[in-house]
Amino acid sequence: MGDIMTKSTPFQLSRIYASGWRAGGNCTADNPVEIAAAGERLNPHLAEDERERWSQGFKDAALNHIAPSAKARK
User: Fold this and answer.
1) Could you say which of 34, 51, 57, 67 would form a disulfide bridge with 17 (CB–CB 3.0 to 4.6 Å)?
2) Residue 60: how many CA atoms within 13 Å on its side-chain side?
3) Sign of the CA dihedral with 36 first, then 15, 2, and 53 last
């Protein structure tokens, strides 16, 4: 969406989070360390704020699909 030199708008960041959420919903990893590694590998963004927002969406969705005991280890 935005490039490295341009600050993303709150709306753009919300769409980036949603994109990460969609990707995280397909994540088959079942522990937080594997989820974080998969998210880092799959993250398509270069700008730090966009990478962070996408990663948060990915992690939130992936953790939503695993057992409560695994969520506690994050």
Assistant:
1) 57
2) 12
3) negative
For residue 27, the tally of other CB atoms under 10 A from its CB is 19
pTM: 0.81
**28: how many CB neighbours lie within 10 A of its CB?**
9
Residues contacting residue 36 through CB under 8 Å, at least 6 positions apart = 55, 59
Domain chopping of the chain, boundaries: 10-72
The three-state secondary structure class of 29 is coil
Kind and range of the H or E element at 33? helix 32-42
What pLDDT, in 10s, does the model give residues 12-69?
A: 999 999 999 999 999 999 999 999 999 999 999 999 999 999 999 999 999 998 866 5
What is the distance between the alpha carbons of residues 6 and 61, in angstroms, rounded to a whole number?
Answer: 27
